[in-house]
């Protein structure tokens, strides 16, 4: 029910996703009238692989977290997370209010042993046509060195699982690569990461995220969210500027036709929708947050992310790594 578009996007996206994944069942959680209306418009009917789970309330995108958590116990978001808690679903995907989703997920699912705080992780494309996983992206504004260590372990386990890399490279975001750079929390986090047994590359700077020098980049949620929003803004500026320049004169419009194959390839490579679906790591279950403005394609990618994490047992990997102790390699 959440996101900017609600069932008008999430329902058709779910049906398209299920057509690609014939072994996956879906539970559409929300107000039955709205969901069944969308299903009927698409000629779909609930069945063994597709069912509707009623929820009488909806968490608004601007709703205070406390209200969503305490006063709306039959919201679509809460019911969906409850299904993941009970085992009736293997994962929960939502395009709704991020703060509410994190709070509800943490309250219902609880954190894994050894994890103090869940973190939000997402993928950013790189120059090498690889991916960099960055966390945290806003769940934890103030972090200790121990929290940053836990983020590094969670990110490494995620990449090891879904990218099938035995020893992912982990970097710590800093204002310089030298050990003397950064505040005391970051310096201490570097020490902990270096002693953790992870494949720790040391400090990295912001441009390393896009160079693809690391598989995982760790930072606190304040910095991570600022980085993510800056990336989105730069991509929007580049797209707008290209359109403006190509439309400037008849000659540039003609050159745009000649450059069309390259422009299409560039747009596909930089398409943020391909990377939609942020993982809420550190929970005793799988929860994936879709961007609120996601269209059908983008929301489908968030569903794909959830299935990957289920099939590769991401929470179980994190739990085993935390129980083994911080000196054991992933």
Task: Explain what this protein looks like in three dimensions.
It is a single chain. By secondary structure, the protein is of the alpha/beta class. It contains 13 helices and 10 strands. The chain has helices at 7-20, 32-41, 65-70, 76-86, 98-109, 145-162, 184-194, 208-211, 221-246, 250-258, 260-270, 296-311, 314-324; strands at residues 26-30, 50-54, 91-94, 119-125, 131-135, 169-173, 199-204, 216-218, 278-281, 286-289. A hairpin with a 4-residue loop joins strand 9 and strand 10. Helix 1 packs across helix 2 (32-41), helix 1 (7-20) crosses helix 12 (296-311) and helix 6 packs across helix 7 (184-194). The chain is globular. It starts with 6 loop residues before the first helix and ends in a 6-residue tail after the last helix.
Radius of gyration: 21 Å
Strand order of the largest sheet: 3-10-9-4-5-8-6-7
The helix tally amounts to 13
Structural class: alpha/beta
Helix-strand sequence: HEHEHHEHEEHEHEHEHHHEEHH
Strand content: 5-15%
What proportion of the residues is helical, as a percent range?
40-55%
Number of strands: 10
Query: Which blocks of ≥5 consecutive residues have pLDDT under 50?
Result: 326-330
Global outline: globular
Oligomeric state, counting identical vs distinct chains? single chain
Average of the residue pLDDT scores: 92
- For the termini, the CA-CA separation is 38 Å
Largest sheet: 8 strands, mixed
């Amino acid at each position: 029910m959440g996101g900017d578009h609600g069932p008008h996007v999430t329902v058709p996206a779910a049906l398209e996703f299920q057509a690609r994944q014939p072994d996956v069942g879906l539970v559409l959680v929300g107000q039955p009238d709205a969901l069944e209306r969308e299903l009927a418009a698409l000629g779909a009917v609930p069945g063994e692989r597709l069912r509707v789970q009623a929820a009488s309330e909806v968490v608004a995108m601007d709703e205070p977290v406390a209200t969503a958590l305490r006063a709306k116990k039959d919201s679509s978001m809460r019911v969906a997370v409850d299904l993941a808690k009970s085992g009736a679903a293997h994962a929960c995907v939502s395009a709704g209010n991020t703060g509410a989703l994190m709070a509800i997920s943490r309250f219902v699912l609880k954190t894994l042993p050894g994890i103090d705080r869940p973190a939000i992780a997402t993928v950013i494309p790189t120059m090498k046509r690889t991916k960099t996983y960055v966390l945290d992206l806003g769940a934890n504004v103030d972090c200790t060195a121990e929290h940053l260590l836990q983020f590094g372990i969670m990110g490494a386990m995620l990449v090891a699982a879904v990218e099938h890399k035995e020893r992912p490279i982990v970097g710590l975001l800093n204002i310089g690569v030298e050990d003397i750079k950064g505040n005391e929390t970051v310096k201490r986090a570097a020490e902990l990461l270096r002693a953790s047994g992870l494949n720790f590359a040391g400090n990295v700077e912001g441009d390393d995220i896009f160079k693809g020098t690391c598989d995982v980049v760790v930072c606190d949620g304040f910095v991570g969210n600022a980085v993510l929003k800056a990336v989105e803004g730069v991509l929007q500026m580049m797209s707008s500027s290209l359109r403006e320049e190509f439309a400037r004169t008849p000659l540039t419009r003609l050159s745009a036709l000649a450059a069309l194959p390259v422009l299409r390839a560039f747009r596909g490579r930089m398409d943020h929708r391909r990377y939609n679906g942020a993982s809420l790591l550190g929970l005793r279950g799988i929860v994936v947050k879709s961007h609120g403005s996601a269209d059908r394609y983008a929301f489908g990618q968030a569903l794909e992310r959830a299935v990957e994490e289920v099939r590769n047992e991401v929470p179980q990997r994190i739990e085993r790594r935390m129980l083994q102790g911080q000196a054991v390699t992933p």
